[in-house]
Amino acid sequence: MQRYIDQFGNPNLAVDELMECQRNFYAIVADKSTGHGAFEVLVNKAMGAVCPDYGLAMMWNTTFGMMGHMMGYQQPSGPMTVSATQAMWIAQRWLAQHQPGTTTEALDQFPGYYTLHILKNGTVTGMLSVNGYSGQVWYHTWHGAFSGMKDLHA
Predict the structure, then answer these.
(1) What is the pTM of this model?
(2) Which of 49, 117, 130 is nearest to 84 (CA)?
(3) Regarding beta strands 108-110 and 50-52, do their DSSP bridges make them parallel or antiparallel, or are they unpaired?
(4) Burial of 112 (C-beta count, 10 Å sphere; 0-12/13-18/19+)
(5) What are the CA-CA distances from residue 127 to residues 15, 50, 67, 75, 111 (Å)?
(6) CB atoms < 10 A from the CB of 111, how many?
(7) Per-residue pLDDT tens for 73-132?
(8) Which positions ≥6 away from 1 have C-beta within 8 Å?
């Protein structure tokens, strides 16, 4: 992961959180200058290949995403219009409809969106993200079951 991060040439980027999942490792790369997440990455468990998290990091990330460079897609700009409090409420409302009995814990803010862990009986069971401009919810289906987590506090 460090080699992947180094290619950005930004000394403020560092791995902040690492999770082991059934299908991959997931990491939050934080920007120490902002105190927020910069982007999310996945690590292939078998080969060690590192790539941006599917969809979100590429489409919703207004700083490190790729969609702003593809097919003339216009990324939103300026401060996010959905606050952290609103994102928590949107996520909880989505969970009440789709996964009753689950809750969220504190969110991680990224450029253009928020990501939250889903909890059932105090155990992480999944993740979802909320777009910081539209409030759209994107449930992470690609991780599989969660095995463990380590906070590295970048």
Answers:
(1) 0.87
(2) 130
(3) unpaired
(4) buried
(5) 18, 19, 22, 23, 17
(6) 20
(7) 566 778 999 999 999 999 999 999 999 999 998 899 999 999 999 999 988 888 999 999
(8) 15, 27, 29, 41, 43, 50
What pLDDT digit, counting tens, does each position of 122-135 carry? 888 889 999 999 99
Task: Answer whether 88's CB lies under 8 Å from 81's CB.
Answer: no
Neighbours of 153 (CB within 10 A): 8
Q: In Å, how far from its chain's centre is CA 122?
A: 20
Please provide residue 10's backbone torsions phi and psi, each rounded to the nearest 5 degrees. -115, 110
Please count the residues of the chain.
154
Report which secondary-structure segment, H or E, holds 4: helix 2-6
Query: Could you please report the per-residue DSSP string of 125-140?
Result: EEEEEEETTT--EEE-
- Rounded CA-CA distance 43/131 in Å is 23
89 C-beta neighbours (distance < 10 Å), count? 15
Closest CA to 41 of 68, 67, 13, 69: 13
